[in-house]
TrEMBL record:
<dbReference type="Pfam" id="PF01869">
    <property type="entry name" value="BcrAD_BadFG"/>
</dbReference>
<feature type="domain" description="ATPase BadF/BadG/BcrA/BcrD type">
    <location>
        <begin position="196"/>
        <end position="497"/>
    </location>
</feature>
<comment type="similarity">
    <text>Belongs to the eukaryotic-type N-acetylglucosamine kinase family.</text>
</comment>
<dbReference type="InterPro" id="IPR019410">
    <property type="entry name" value="Methyltransf_16"/>
</dbReference>
<protein>
    <recommendedName>
        <fullName>N-acetyl-D-glucosamine kinase</fullName>
        <ecNumber>2.7.1.59</ecNumber>
    </recommendedName>
</protein>
<dbReference type="InterPro" id="IPR039758">
    <property type="entry name" value="NAGK-like"/>
</dbReference>
<dbReference type="InterPro" id="IPR043129">
    <property type="entry name" value="ATPase_NBD"/>
</dbReference>
<dbReference type="Pfam" id="PF10294">
    <property type="entry name" value="Methyltransf_16"/>
</dbReference>
<dbReference type="GO" id="GO:0045127">
    <property type="term" value="F:N-acetylglucosamine kinase activity"/>
</dbReference>
<dbReference type="InterPro" id="IPR029063">
    <property type="entry name" value="SAM-dependent_MTases_sf"/>
</dbReference>
<dbReference type="InterPro" id="IPR002731">
    <property type="entry name" value="ATPase_BadF"/>
</dbReference>
Length: 520
């Protein structure tokens, strides 16, 4: 664009557009105005200044030195240097637009004008990108742009489809003896808000995404596993939480279009149906009646493997579970059934296994492990002086996370033989989770497994590794690649809600950081 010479001329479109501005003075007077593609003359921007605009920023490509210098002289010659300023702006550079937004534009920008900028089709896409970027940052601004008809096939539709929140209307068509000038208005309309919740046993995360700008609002609260807490209580807790966050962030609850829920324990269809009915009956009108419920592990799959690809999510936090999504969309799972019949390899399982090893050793059931270090850590962690006091925590005053927390203390002493063995066993169980779901892959796809790991237990990976790798030996898997999650399940839940409710595809991170690659 910087090599072209359009800027040297005053085109008929600029005169007609300026007359339009004069006929609609109220749209300009007292407003802060940005002109895109001012050229050397800046006729439209100067007109805005003469009409009483509070401030006018006139821009064109930063490499057009002569044009920008001439533009500055025209400003001075017209006696509006007190309220007109010049800046370089490259439509094809998001960085250039961002720089102008941050350094040259004030928050009260309300009018953007552009005359005959849609001249060269090669610039249509970056121009629309620029308009979208400006309206995202100044959501109440209005863009007026003029176009001189030259080509019957002229259209912005392919480029506007990228931004469903942009609304373009033909405001005026002006016929002269030689030209037809169309004047359009472009504004940003809200696509609404979409919320997603990742509900774990001990903690939950809420993400609210503005579909128009992709801005995110986040909050955290207590666990929302409805097998540990009555589902009616969880429904009320979620509804209250959402309302509190909307109020705190200054958001309108009526703008919430849909809610996606990825909750720990949401594995049974019948139980999920009851939850959905309860929520809709009591909170459908005050929150939203449009929501989608699945387990936290399945939602994690959708967040981290959104494309047609094979992927495994292995969770080992307070609890544990493993879910795999095949490239055909089929989901298979292993574990995830809670601490009574599942949670193998989790923090709860590790803590309980160590405590049982201590009791078994002191009862004489096992003789091959010295459990003195486990006992020392147990007494210190729970501030007790007798091992039987731990029974209060395991039974009468049971709270799952309080038992799981003991694993943090155990992880500080994986050099101890007994504790090392507990972590090795945990690794073995987690490896068997992966081996179990991988059976549902073809022989070829099973050779390399892509695994997203989630949960604090993996901070002790060196202590888990031997058991994990041995569990996969002979399974037909030749290599495993383990990743950090690229996006939270809460984001995945919001993305699913937007897609299912209105066919809107929200942006989400897709790049996963590789933590380790292991050849088996």
């Amino acid at each position: 664009m910087s090599t072209q010479n359009h800027w040297k001329h005053t085109w008929p479109c600029a005169q007609i557009f300026s007359e339009f501005l004069c006929a609609n003075r109220e749209k300009i007077e007292g407003k802060t105005v940005l002109e895109i593609g001012a050229g050397a003359t800046g006729v439209c921007g100067l007109t805005a200044a003469k009409l009483g605009a509070k401030r006018v920023l006139m821009t064109d490509h930063p490499k057009l030195d002569v044009a920008l210098q001439t533009l500055q002289r025209n400003i001075e010659a017209n006696g509006v240097a007190d309220r007109c300023h010049v800046a370089g702006l490259d439509w094809e550079s998001r960085e250039s637009v961002s720089s102008v937004i941050s350094s040259s534009l004030s928050s009260d920008l309300s009018v953007i004008i552009a005359s005959d900028v849609f001249f060269d089709p090669s610039t249509f896409r970056p121009l629309v990108d620029t308009f979208a970027q400006l309206l995202i940052n100044f959501e109440h601004a209005v863009i007026y742009f003029a176009y001189q008809q030259r080509d019957d096939s002229w259209t912005l539709a392919p480029y506007l489809s990228k931004y469903p929140f942009l609304r373009v209307e033909l405001t005026r068509r002006i016929e002269t003896d030689n030209e037809t000038i169309d004047i359009f208005t472009m504004t940003k309309e809200s696509l609404g808000l979409y919320a997603g919740i990742e509900g774990g046993a001990t903690g939950s995360k809420l993400v609210i995404i503005d579909a128009s700008t992709n801005r995110q609002y986040t909050s955290s609260t207590q666990g929302t596993n409805f097998f540990l807490t009555d589902y009616t209580v969880v429904c009320q807790r979620i509804a209250t939480w959402i309302q509190e966050v909307f109020t705190a962030e200054g958001l309108e609850i009526r703008d919430l279009r849909a809610l996606g829920l990825g909750l720990s324990g949401a594995e049974d269809e019948e139980f999920n149906r009851k939850f959905v009915e309860e929520f809709r009956r009591n909170h459908g009108k005050s929150i939203t009646a449009n929501f989608y419920l699945t387990s936290d592990s399945v939602m994690t799959l959708l967040a981290n493997f959104p494309a047609e690809e094979n992927g495994i999510v292995l969770i080992a936090g307070t609890g544990s579970s493993c879910r795999m999504k095949r490239r055909d969309g089929v989901v298979k799972g292993a574990g995830g059934w809670g601490h009574q019949v599942g949670d193998g390899g989790s923090a709860f399982w590790i803590a309980r296994e160590a405590i049982q090893m201590l009791f078994d050793a002191e009862d004489g059931f096992i003789t091959d492990f010295n459990t003195d270090v486990i006992k020392e850590l147990l007494f210190k962690h729970y501030s007790i002086t007798d091992k039987t006091r731990i029974l209060d925590f395991l039974y009468s005053n049971f709270e799952k996370h309080k038992i799981a927390d003991f694993t943090v203390s155990l992880a500080t002493r994986v050099d101890d033989v007994s504790i090392s063995e507990v972590f090795r066993r945990a690794g073995d169980i987690l490896g068997r989770h992966v081996r179990t779901v991988a059976k549902h892959l073809s022989e070829e796809d099973r050779k390399v497994l892509h695994i997203v790991q989630i949960g604090g237990v993996f901070l002790s990976w060196p202590a888990l590794q031997n058991g994990f790798v041995n569990a996969l030996s002979g399974s037909g898997t030749h290599k495993i690649i383990m990743y950090e999650p690229c996006d939270s399940p809460a984001v995945g839940a919001a993305v699913l809600a937007a897609k299912e409710q209105n066919g809107i595809y929200l942006e989400q991170k897709v790049k996963k950081n590789v933590l380790r690659e292991i050849d088996l």
